[in-house]
Amino acid sequence: MAVLEKTVAESVKELTQWKGRKMRLYERYKAGEISREDYVERIETGRVPMEELERSRREAQAELECMREAAGLEEVADEELAGFSVLDVFDRERVKMLIEKVVVYGEDAMEIVWKVRNPFEGEVSA
Question: Which listed residue, 22, 35, 77, 82, has the most CB atoms within 10 A of its CB?
């Protein structure tokens, strides 16, 4: 599992760095430092490897999730989970029941590894 976790973490980090490079390229293009052709060429040069990296990340993440499910992660009773929805404050012990770990990849990227099925799965974040 550690190899897959490392693959996912490195992929997310590299994808985040690519997004930063794309933004800097765009800023340079808008400032007139590079031509439109140069801007498009550089974006296209990075696009294919980044698509491949994203595909690898998704595959590693899916395999990791399957392994975690197969390992029989701790399950919290539905009744106990329902009780969490009415809490105003979570204490350390309750958070430890729900979250395996939090991995921070950078300033704007992180992953929460749940001990239970992700309660926020399918929600859209801003």
Answer: 22
